[in-house]
Every structure is written in C-alpha cells, then in structure tokens.
Amino acid sequence: MYCPFCGKNKDKVIDSRASDGGKVIRRRRECLECHKRFTTYERVEETVRLTVIKKDGARAPYDRTKILNGLQKACYKRPVSVEQLDALMDEVEEDLFRRGEREVGAQTIGEVVSDKLKRLDQVAYVRFASVYKEFRDLDDLLDEVRDVLASPPPPREQGKLF
Ligand SMILES: [Zn+2]
Fold first, then answer.
1. pTM
2. How far is the CA of 150 from the centre of ligand 1 (A)?
3. What secondary structure letter does DSSP report for 139?
4. Is the pLDDT assigned to residue 155 strictly greater than 60?
5. Distance 26 CA to ligand 1 centre (A)
C-alpha cells in the first residue's frame, strides 16, 4: 500500500480487526520509510445482489448476517463452530447464486440452509426449522423430528458402512 505521507510502497500491518459484523477488515499500517501510520479498509466487492421475497410478498435485500445469527442461535450449546456455520453459508450462497435468479423466496433459503444444517447437527436443524417453518403445533414439530431421526446418517459416516 502506498504511504499517504511519503508515497513509498513499503509498510507493515500492525493491527487487523473486523468491524461491521465481519464485513469490513480494518488494518493499521506503519510505513517502513517514514514510520507514519495509516489505516486501510478491506471489504468484499458486492457483485451479486439477491432480493428475498418474504411470505407476505415484501422484498428485502439478502442478508447473510441475519441468517448467520439465526444459525448461531440454533446451535446454542451445540458442538458446531462459527467457522462451520460460515462455511455452511458459503455453500448456501453458492447454491443460491448458481440459480441465477435475482429474487428468491425466504422459504427456499430456509430450505437450502436447513438441508445443510441437518447434515451438520440434527438438534440445531430442528431448532432452526422450527423457526422458519413456523410449525403450527407440537405434532408438526414432532413429525419433523421423527423425519430427522429416520433420515440416513450424514455422508461422512456412511463411508464406515462399506
Ligand atoms: Zn511513509
């Protein structure tokens, strides 16, 4: 990075921290030539914009952070790390963006997310699904739980069977 004081392209990063919910990385740099300090910001270029259609037809911009927050709540006290959830959301976004549609239903997103969560942690899956599916009553919820328990084990465990 070119130093704003002396113009030399020789600096070292002395501190990096995430802000705006991890969307922006702020770096403090020190010029190795004049020893003055300056700050740079790094963020992902937003090339794809996805609009979410809610149940009532209202449109809202796609918000990864919001879904991640929901996932973290669902994974409360479960053996799922933030890194795993982040990777899960990367997969979800790949799926969604591959569809090439600029608008996608909230229900569809909920399904894609919960489908991947199911393979990660079944308890978290039921918690998450109970929010997005808005189960009408306990029977609905129990049906879903039975489905989960009856479903085949995740692929990484299937390997042991053969
Ligand atoms: Zn300098």
1. 0.56
2. 64
3. H
4. no
5. 19
CA of 2 to the centre of ligand 1 (A): 8
Structure confidence at residue 137 (pLDDT) = 58
Nearest to 127 by CA among 71, 55, 79: 71
Give the number of C-alpha atoms closer than 13 A to the C-alpha of residue 78, restricted to the C-beta side.
21
How far does residue 29's CA lie from ligand 1's centre (Å)? Answer: 10
Separation of CA 43 and ligand 1 centre (Å): 24
> CA-to-CA distance for 25 and 43, rounded, in angstroms?
6
Classified as helix, coil or strand, 18 is strand
Cβ–Cβ under 8 Å, residues 96 and 79:
no
Q: What is the pLDDT of residues 129-153, one digit of tens each?
A: 887 776 555 566 666 666 766 766 6
Separation of CA 124 and ligand 1 centre (Å): 51
Q: How close are the terminal C-alpha atoms of the chain, in Å?
A: 54
d(CA 44, CA 89): 15
